[in-house]
Write a structure and sequence with these properties.
three-stranded mixed beta sheet, disordered N terminus, binds iron/sulfur cluster
């Protein structure tokens, strides 16, 4: 299978030209505001616990993130609070320049065989800088040769399509694309620097056509029509995980206060209350079947698909 090229990616979004142009303008503007601090890291795998208890490690090829999701709770965590650059969240990115080499060293010691890896929990492995730097891709190449017991690649970027041939060489992999809403206006309100809804749906469909196991992460659930969400997802995902601000931010919603205020100010009070994820999950189950729709922590940590390969 040939790797997709930039023109493939552009073709993929041709039907979404105006939204795509807006996204590109937004992303270009955002990139200009951001600073890169490439440097080698001491380690690449981090032991997981808490919310990701089903995994043994998280893998972050980058510190920081270039997508400035308004609800991102990582900005309330140590990685941001202790960042040595003195910049606000999403204004800095520290690529771990030796990420593939570090993973390679672990692999050579046999350290990947039993690992259940979540990539990534505090950045997006396909943050825009990945297009040139290829650090995530380098890590995938290592895992294609030394497969972990399970790998979840969690992203909101269609750039993941570039690596679908490498991903297809990893036996126990699931590609999860964040899709908290199919309402493009809401997406712009809450994720102004992220790829459009249409481009993410297209990426999911193409990943699945390439034979990869796909998941939509409706997390945190944002305002939108659940039936339209179900119709959009049917046919391009194997499963869906739904979560909300209250269970998903690991602090009962305290790390999401700013996002909840933003939603209320925009007139989406219902979506700023606990219970919306369960309501949306019910509607999704009606359309997609109960076995394909999971919720919150139990859903993200359900790795039954990895043992059934
Ligand atoms: S992509 Fe993830 S890590 Fe990056 S800003 Fe959005 S929620 Fe935060």
């Amino acid at each position: 299978m040939a790797h997709s090229t930039e023109s493939d990616l552009d073709d993929a979004s041709a039907h979404d030209a105006s939204a795509h142009d807006a996204s590109v303008r937004d992303a270009g503007e955002a990139t200009r505001r951001r600073q890169l601090f490439p440097r080698p890291a001491h380690s690449i795998l981090t032991r997981t616990g808490g919310f990701l208890s089903g995994f043994t490690h998280s893998l972050q090829p980058y510190s920081g993130c270039q997508f400035s999701c308004r609800y991102c709770y990582v900005r309330e965590m140590t990685v941001q609070r202790a960042n040595p650059f003195g910049l606000p969240w999403s204004r800095w990115l520290a690529p771990k320049t030796n990420a593939p080499e570090l993973l390679w060293r672990t692999a050579r010691r046999g350290g990947l065989e039993a690992a259940r890896i979540f990539c990534s929990s505090a950045t997006d492995p396909y943050t825009p800088a990945e297009r040139k730097l290829g650090l995530t891709r380098g890590c995938l190449e290592v895992m294609a040769r030394h497969p972990p017991a399970a790998l979840v690649v969690q992203t909101r970027s269609p750039l993941v399509l570039r690596d679908r041939a490498v991903l297809a060489r990893i036996p126990h992999v699931l590609v999860s694309v964040s899709l908290p809403t199919v309402d493009e206006g809401v997406r712009r309100l809450m994720e102004p620097d992220s790829p459009s809804v249409a481009r993410r749906l297209d990426a999911l469909a193409r990943l699945r056509r390439a034979g990869l196991r796909t998941q939509a992460a409706v997390a945190p659930v944002l305002p939108g029509d659940p039936a339209a969400l179900a119709r959009a997802l049917d046919g391009c995902v194997d499963r869906v995980v739904v979560d909300d601000f209250f269970r998903g931010d690991g602090a009962g919603g305290r790390r999401s206060r700013g996002a909840l205020e933003r939603l209320r100010a925009a007139g989406y009070e219902r979506f700023a209350e606990p219970g919306m994820a369960a309501e949306v999950a019910r509607e999704l189950r009606r359309h997609l079947g109960s076995e394909r729709v999971l919720e919150s922590e139990a859903g993200f940590n359900d790795l039954a698909w990895a043992s059934s390969v």
